[in-house]
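Residues determine shape. Take a concrete instance:
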Amino acid sequence: MREPSTAIIETNGGGVSSPPPQALLERLKDYGQEDVFSLWDELSNEERDFLVKDIESLDLSRIDRIIRCSLRSQGLPAAAIEPVPESNVSKVEERSQEERERWWKMGLKAISDGKVAVLLLSGGQGTRLGSSDPKGCFNIGLPSGKSLFQLQAERILCVQRLTAHATNESSASSVQIHWYIMTSPFTDEATRKFFESHKYFGLDAEQVTFFRQGTIPCVSKDGRIILETPYRVAKAPDGNGGSVFSSEVYQIIGGYGLKRNQVC
């Protein structure tokens, strides 16, 4: 009697093990990352579900592009860094009064037209300062006791008032500079609560947008994705440059013709 051709795999617990989702496995093979399923047979059903969802959340094509850029750069000589020629540098103090006034008016006009926003990269905690709070909440010892978040908010309010006055707007509230604040999984909730408890330091809540800093898988020297546990991909913050991939910030830069796939 012939044996069945269907392979049956037993788990550690003696039950029947199903293989990884075929479509996902094929995608991983396309990028040479199928090793993330190497411990599949040792996982419980719940752990397998977690691993599958974790992998499905990854932008594999972008990750592969970043890895390839990094691997191609290995062994290449570092580019020479030289000071910018002084002929290419101009100080405001060296410009004529007319030029400075013209630039000032151009800036205020751009703000009045809603073409200016503020992006604050605030995903870090104040651990080196002895605090687990977001750095923007930290008391840096000013006589006023103001936090970095408050100082930034007050500067935005000041520029809004200057713009309203210079452009003959009916009130300062008619001019708004949108404030995009990047947080992290560790600082997001605390940052939001800090702003709410301080009534956004005088700003309208609608002009402040919080978004979380992205993460990217950790990889080995040969470009293979590393697992933190047998069912969890090891990840790290994707850096300040990763902020351009957030949908909130992309709506700003999209108008300038920059596309996500143009950023390694």
Remarks:
- The radius of gyration is 26 Å.
- The chain has a mean pLDDT of 83.
- Residues 148-166 form the longest helix (19 residues).
